[in-house]
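[Q] Does anyone have a clean structure-token version of this?
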Amino acid sequence: MDERFDVLVCGAGPAGLAAAQAAAGRGARVGLIDAQAAAGGQIWRRDVRQSGAPVAAGIIGRALLTRGVAFLAQSQVVAAGDHELLVEQPQRALRLRFGKLVIATGARELLLPFPGWTLPGVTGAGGLQALVKQGWPIAGQRVVVAGSGPLLLAAAATLRQHGGRVLGIHEQAPARRVWRFAAQLPRWPARALQALALRTTLAGIPYRCGEFVLAASGDDRLRAVEIRTPAGVRHVDCDHLAIGYGLVPNVELARLLGCRLETTARHARVATDDTQRTNLDDIYAAGEVCGIGGCAAARIEGRIAGLAAVGALRAAARTRHRHARRFGRLLTDCFTLDEHIRSLATPETVICRCEDVTIAALGEYRDARAAKLATRCGMGACQGRVCGAALAELGRFTENGVRPPLLPTRLSSLSDPFVCKNP
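[A] Here you go.
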């Protein structure tokens, strides 16, 4: 089945919603696709047990109800051609043609290996938050939250609201940098108010700086973690470990299409100009895929991209945009990872969870392609999204190119001829 849109937006988070609403508001027929069943992205993911924030619900509702916006839920891009994408849904595949494309694919958690990180009960902080919002039972369970960045607070708040026993939040950044971050938050009043609300929700839960998880232990599942503290190593019994070391842009679609990428802090992001246009004439990008900057920056960039895609951009609010992007730079500066975290894994530690490949198995391979061919590292269900980012962070390999399909796909979806662009 084929459909054509004036503007096709990939990703229904803050950036994608803003882009779709802006373009449709100027009369364009807009397709908005997302892999999830509901719009909002990770930050505004629907909670099946808690009522969502009215502001977020209003933003999502206004975007989806804008005349000209067609929302295609549970749609994941598996291949790309000339001004068209092959999209797979649960029951069918679609060929979506577009005049302009806005890539707003967001970001994913950065997970780093350490002994025991593959035990059942060890998850990403945002991953456990998403599971709990979708009904995963956490009430009464003992949870340790660890890693880096303010997203740990949001994850911990969700876990507590759903009855989880959060034993502590362990931030790897030293206290002086965390205080420097907090001292500058008033420059972004909405962020400051959000932080205060989270701390109120988390009252009584220890928040410890300069601490990180060394190892997890257990039998058939997680039983305890070892945490390095300024005073020495501490053993904590727990049922769950929610751990995450920040975010990594989802650039796979942009890479497949041939968009120019820039590498900062060991990970790639999409390069754009002042109108959010990539190096390709009809393709724009907005939000975290252009570098981690937060919700405010994503919404501004999404609006700019949507207006630019329909030729309606008169003057971009560059001052407001630059101010919003400074928040991302503050995050990077204040939550830089301790080098010890990158050396926790032993040769026997599994690095590719999908294919059960250890670090030792990678041997002396010089690049990701050679390692993949020899060990199948990165060839599993996640297609290297977890291990590839981890290895790039560890300085072992740079994240390599992508080939269609972008994700495991039904053969029936690929049965019709489709010219895949593969730079």
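[Q] Thanks! Anything notable?
[A] The chain is about 30% helix and 25% strand.
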